[in-house]
């Protein structure tokens, strides 16, 4: 049965996005907020709001006990974690269950299985999802690492099993480099995650990052909602995402979707998730990681599939099937691009630019969508991530989407803080990007002056 009331354990644009979905479903919402966020749009938009602590996330948005207590006190039956904060915290998912609160996301066991990257790799390899040639589980000694590297050949990549997002990852291009890079990866992983386990993979050169959005409910409906191309990244922070990927042909798209559904079956995954793949220059793809949450870039998939991923998440968690419309076979409609408008200065190595937004005028017109919590006068806090808004455009084809993206960026007026708008204008004018040829080294090779 659909919930009467849910709590949104997040802030900013995603908190508002989840509340909008809930409202369309006739579900009341509870916001939780830090003292720093008291006067923000999602707090006002919610039916109820509960302060859960001071500005630092560790004392507010990461305080599981405070959030669960807020849900109990307000009678919220479920908690949507958004992305970041507690979204991929298995202990939080478990704490929700122990308090008879539904966690709007996968089971704690799925979060754990996918959170350990060496385990996730093994699980995928054993169910027929392509993986990069790699070590069979952890490499506990430098000799093991060396033996593996000799077998598959250099260059190799040493990855932290507790990692993800690039932390604790080191390349070794020759036997001479192996020992020092192996040790460096272990040390970095131990310091960052309290787990120094590492494994090895052959290094894929100039890959693209292509990921498949999946949905799965309790009625054996498992859906792959096409792919997103997220190759435009800076230090593992995505800046611009698009769907579909300009690099996939129909056949590869189909087999990537099949692989993603296999991954979902292998761990009996429920709710929304994303299977990330590396796509190499030959067009072969390999499992990289699974994200067990809704992602920042989910709107590009929504635009080309005409689905509301957040509403589907809430339906699934309430024990309802995925909506009939989303279950029907579909072919992707047109092309969508998302640009992350961050309060960062692209002319100074993307350094954060907190402050007061003194002017905020949104773009509009056909095919333009903005997800934001910002208003004129908003204070952008140095305590949280710098995402001000996501500008999403949709067109009949990629050329129209690019033209709309440029037009919308020109219309978007933000004053008082520096933003990534000028960066996006440059990307959209870049010939490699326009040709659809961007790989994960795009910013380094095409915009070296911004590093
Ligand atoms: C790789 C790779 C090349 N070969 N694995 C980056 C973060 C983590 N999710 C895995 N990552 C990579 N794994 C092999 N075997 C290159 C990357 C990588 C990357 C991947 C996607 C997007 C941007 C990236 C930037 C640098 C490295």
Index terms:
five-stranded parallel beta sheet, D-amino Acid Aminotransferase, Chain A, domain 1, globular, 16 helices, 22 strands, eight-stranded antiparallel beta sheet, Dna Ligase, domain 1, Rossmann fold
Per CATH, the superfamily of the largest domain is: ATP-grasp fold, B domain
The N- to C-terminal Cα distance equals 51 Å
Helix percent reads 25-40%
Uncertain regions: pLDDT < 50 for 5+ in a row? none
Q: How many β-strand runs?
A: 22
Q: How would you sum up the major sheet?
A: 8 strands, antiparallel
Strand content: 25-35%
**CATH fold assignment of the largest domain:** D-amino Acid Aminotransferase, Chain A, domain 1
Q: What is the correct CATH architecture of the largest domain?
A: 2-Layer Sandwich
Helix and strand composition category: alpha+beta
Ligands bound, unique: ligand MV4
């Amino acid at each position: 049965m659909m919930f009467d009331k849910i709590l949104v354990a997040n802030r900013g644009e995603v908190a508002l996005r989840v509340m909008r979905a809930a409202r369309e479903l006739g579900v009341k919402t509870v916001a939780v907020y830090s003292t720093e966020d008291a006067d923000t749009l999602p707090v006002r938009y919610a039916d109820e709001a509960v302060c859960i602590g001071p500005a630092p996330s560790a004392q507010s948005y990461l305080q599981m006990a405070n959030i669960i207590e807020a849900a109990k006190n307000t009678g919220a039956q479920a908690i949507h974690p958004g992305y970041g904060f507690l979204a991929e915290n298995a202990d939080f998912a478990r704490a929700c269950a122990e308090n008879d609160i539904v966690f709007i996301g996968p089971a704690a066991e799925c979060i754990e299985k996918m959170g350990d990257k060496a385990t996730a790799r093994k699980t995928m390899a054993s169910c027929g999802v392509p993986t990069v040639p790699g070590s069979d589980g952890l490499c506990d000694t430098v000799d093991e690492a060396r033996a593996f590297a000799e077998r598959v050949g250099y260059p190799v990549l040493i990855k932290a099993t507790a990692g993800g997002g690039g932390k604790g990852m080191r390349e070794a291009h020759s036997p001479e480099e192996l020992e020092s890079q192996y040790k460096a990866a272990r040390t970095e992983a131990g310091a960052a995650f309290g787990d120094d386990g590492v494994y090895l993979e052959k290094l894929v050169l100039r890959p693209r990052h292509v990921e498949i959005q999946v949905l799965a409910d309790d009625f054996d409906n498992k859906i792959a909602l096409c792919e997103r191309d997220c190759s435009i990244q800076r230090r593992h922070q995505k800046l611009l995402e698009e769907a579909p990927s300009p690099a996939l042909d129909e056949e590869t798209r189909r087999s990537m979707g099949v692989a993603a559904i296999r991954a979902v079956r292998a761990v009996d995954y429920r709710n929304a998730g994303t299977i990330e793949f590396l796509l190499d220059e030959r067009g072969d793809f390999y499992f990289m990681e699974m994200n067990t949450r809704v992602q920042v870039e989910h709107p590009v998939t929504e635009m080309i599939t005409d689905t509301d991923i957040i509403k589907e998440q809430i339906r699934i968690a309430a024990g309802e099937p995925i909506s009939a419309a989303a279950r029907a076979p579909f072919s992707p409609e047109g092309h969508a691009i998302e640009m992350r408008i961050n309060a960062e200065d692209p002319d100074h190595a993307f350094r954060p630019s907190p402050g007061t937004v003194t002017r905020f005028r949104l773009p509009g017109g056909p095919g333009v969508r903005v997800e934001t919590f910002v208003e004129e006068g908003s204070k952008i806090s140095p305590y949280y991530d710098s995402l001000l808004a996501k500008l999403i455009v949709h067109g009949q084809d990629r050329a129209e989407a690019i033209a709309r993206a440029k037009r919308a960026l020109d219309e978007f007026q933000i004053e008082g803080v520096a933003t990534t708008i000028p960066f996006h204008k440059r990307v959209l004018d870049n010939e490699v990007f326009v040709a659809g040829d961007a790989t994960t080294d795009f910013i380094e090779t095409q915009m070296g002056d911004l590093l």
